[in-house]
């Protein structure tokens, strides 16, 4: 299966721009419609923010340049600054904790 290169370039650039000057993991969400955004909650003085919505049915999931996990749905795209190696490492760690 092949994917359009413009999606890869746009996704990589969105993550790089969001990551500039930020420590920790970065994510971007592109929604085809505002109707897909179910809830945004930013309580006064709260430390936590809730974003809730849908990207629709999952069309495919892949790693862009082994550095960005990209989930593409029928209604949007979720990209997370998470490499294939990071996911494998965290998965192994979680599996090891479950065995204890």
Describe this structure in words.
It is built from 2 helices and 6 strands; from the N terminus they run H-E-E-E-E-E-E-H. By secondary structure, it is α+β, with helices and mostly antiparallel strands. The chain has one domain (5-99). The strands form 2 sheets. Strands 1-6-5-4 form a 4-stranded antiparallel sheet, with helices on one face. A two-stranded antiparallel ribbon has the order 2-3. Strand 4 (58-64) and strand 5 form a beta hairpin. The radius of gyration is 16 Å and the shape is globular. The chain starts with a helix and ends with a helix.
Please describe the structure with a list of short key phrases separated by commas or semicolons.
single chain, 100 residues, alpha+beta, two-stranded antiparallel sheet, 2 helices
Q: What is this structure, in a nutshell?
A:
This protein is of the alpha+beta class and 100 residues long.
Structural class: alpha+beta
Roughly what fraction of the amino acids lie in strands? 25-35%
Shape summary: globular
Rg over C-alpha atoms, rounded to the nearest angstrom: 16 Å
Instruction: Give the % helix.
Output: 25-40%
Distance between the termini: 40 Å
Q: Any low-confidence stretches, pLDDT <50, length ≥5? A: 1-6
Which H/E pattern describes the elements? HEEEEEEH
In spatial order, strands of the major sheet run: 1-6-5-4
- What is the count of DSSP helices, taking H or I runs of 4+ residues? 2
Number of separate domains: 1
Average pLDDT for all residues:
79
Count the strands? 6
For the biggest sheet, the summary is: 4 strands, antiparallel
